Write the structure tokens for this entry.
Amino acid sequence: MSVKEIIDLRSDTVTLPTEEMLEAIQHAELGDDVFEEDQTVNALEKLAAERMGKEAALLVTSGTQANLISLMSNAKRGELVILEAESHIYWYEVGGVSMIAGLLPWPLKSPVGALDPKEVKAAIRPQDIHLPKPALICIENTHNRHGGTIIMPDQIKAVSEAAQEHDLKLYLDGARIFNASVALKVDVKEFTKHVDNLMFCLSKGLCCPVGSLIVGTREFINRSRKLRKILGGGMRQAGIIAAPGIVALESMIDRLEDDHRNARRLAEGIAKIDGINIDLNRVQTNIVYFNIGGLGIKADVFILKLKEKSILALTLTENTVRMVTHKGIEKEHVEKAISTIEIISNELQNEKVHAD
Ligand SMILES: Cc1ncc(COP(=O)(O)O)c(C=O)c1O
């Protein structure tokens, strides 16, 4: 690590493609994917479906597009979708759930991201002329805004039973589902077997430059393919995107464990610093949130101070800072981040003493 090197802890989306991925792009067999003739895309979609234990898959441009298409493919305009109140779909997808999919989002609060099946059942109200038809339940795993928390397979199963009882579909925003499976050391199918369909992202911890996959039944994927076209997401020689995706599924999953180890190291280091509060129980994968309220400054000012010292982070709330580990972050970067936070904390405490 050079002295001036920037340590970018904003997101695992900043990861760059590996040499092997660049090589795969260069040699990818290409065709027109709108005609379903790109053999590299076809191979990736087949592989993704097999990995997830479903019939078929569809390559799309982003996680947001995957969620939007899946919402539209699972429910009709005017219907109701139950989702977790801190979910990415509800917070960060520009309201596409209502603006484009035409659905009524029905958010349910939860302590760490897992929907309570009893609350889900209560939200599925008996049909009445005044009420929209509930059609879909969305879950998120790992749960981003709750701190990369894992929703356990049995928690998903319980929600799926509620969905089945009332004939609703269950969809998983699995942008980081491989982080959950690696952290629990269980096959990813242990999560996916309880949902009707899902998406996962290639361009987060798996380091691909672009792309997400929607996975589900053949019928669901056929419908989704047409919706992708409506939304302008039909791509031509998309094999250049799919080729690194195949590399990712074949060789980039197990290494997520390194990111989890570094996140834990970072969290435990930060936990020792005065003025900072962190819930270590929530640090289950590669995301670390910590509260800097005790330092007497707001999170946006804090991250500017970090930036001056070549460390990049994001804010989550007024007092909460977010850091995410990924392939570009090694043990020494974590140590540098911890010592820098400690320096800033000490500077602030000293300023406070002098002001007092
Ligand atoms: C849980 C979750 N879902 C969906 C997305 C959207 O993915 P994209 O940024 O590729 O649109 C993200 C992005 O961070 C996410 O964390």
